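Subject: mismatched residue count in predicted assembly?

I count 513 residues in my input, but I want to confirm that the predicted structure covers every chain. Input:
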Amino acid sequence: MIAVRILFTLLLAAMSAVSAAENPLTAKQILQKMVKAMEVSNYQGTVVFLKNDKLEAMKYFHTSEKNQEQERLVSLNSPQREIIRNSDEVTCLYKLTQQVIVDHRPYEHSFIVDVPKNLDELDTSYQFEVVGEEDVAMLPSYVVAIQPKDDFRYIRKIWIAKEQFLPMKAIVYGLSGIVLEQVVFTEMQINKQPLSKDKVVAEVSKVTATASESENNASFEVTALPLGFKQIFFSRKPLHQTDQPVDHLLLSDGFASVSVYLESKKANTTPDSRLPEGIHSVGAINSMSRSLADSQLTVLGEVPASTVKYISEGVKLRNSTP
Amino acid sequence: MRDEVNQKISWLVDGELGHDETLDLLKKIQSDEVLKAKMSRYQAISQALKTDEFYQVRCDFSHQVFQEIQQEPTYFLPQLKPQHPPQVQDTDKQSKRKLYAVAASTLVAAVLVGQSLRDDTAGNQYQTVTAMAVSGQQLPFSANQPDKLKQRRQPLNAEFNDYLQAHNSSVYTNGEVLLQPYAKVTAYGQE
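Triage response: the counts match. Full output below for your records.
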């Protein structure tokens, strides 16, 4: 009887092995493994960013210890700086000017690529597909395409190392297929032990955390959103060199994010510093500015120009008479 | 006479016949079936001697290609006008043509400018402006160009930069230096 059981167990194991070989991982499974690997792995490398029409090469370090992550970027080119992300706090040190900027970003998780944990929620807006296998930085990688189901967002591809399940390369393509943004590792190594976490040696006397407020506190409402976009963060704080508060609502569909800003028109600003009305583009970022009563509305995000225009046209002031 | 023709065919096959004589010989071959057959045999012998391989080409092969070309439709492709040396007799005509060309170009330009101005004032307020990085470096033309929207370049606006900083962390990786201290900026101690 025992022999039969052992035989049966061996048969099941063999069948599952054959089944695994015949059923390769789906795109979603690969992305989910990537999200997990990014959380728990200790690794470092050289990464090149092509964003906002600028190219930057940086050293990258990721440390994970006791469920606490730290990302660290060290610039290879001027201006010399070090950027550290501890949970939702991003600190940027400019070594030449001796500036320290502490910023709270509860809605971001990685400098490399942000992928939501629950990919099933994105089925209405995107479809996921493994479109091939390529080497990046000499590591065999899956190529996962994230194809939008409409023209409100960009096409993305992520190259994920087959063994380590870490993101090696990510590209954002325009609607015509042109590369708009790119992040790519030129070399990467896995560290068996977590590196010692870097601490900012700075006298930061007080840091004001940016807590998310209720969207109902916003002086405006967004009446028209492309499918899949949700309101995820709202704050009211000064953004410019004045104390004038700006309403900031962040929208996201999981991959693409759009910010809606509303502030009263400033009488004392010079025309040069004011953002002219219309559509503005830099790299994958598009923005649309227009007047809304006595306020200036700006919608900005890494989405096509037609999307920021669509969202901005649906923004209305609360309690405003038509 | 026949020997002389045979000799020329041999030279032609070997590529040793002069240009004018080649043309004369090809004309003769075209109208003489015996010479055509002979030419074909010479080519076969030459090919077999040189490559150990032989491909029989039909006698009317070139004729058929010619017929196919004749049946091809004509495509009018734009071409650059050849530059002719200036001729003294046509100076007046040329200067008049130039005058007409300038007048026509001015008229077209005036119509187009007028139309664009009218479009701008008639509610086309969503004018696209392609921004540039803070450093002022000349960037390659933006890849993201909505087809129906006009784009104009100008330096990145300070307000745009503030919004970008609040939107995501890309300003830090980009190395922008005109960041706003809305979070917290302080001089750090050189301990």
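Strands of chain B lie at 128-132, 151-155, 185-187. Marking this ticket as 'not a bug'.
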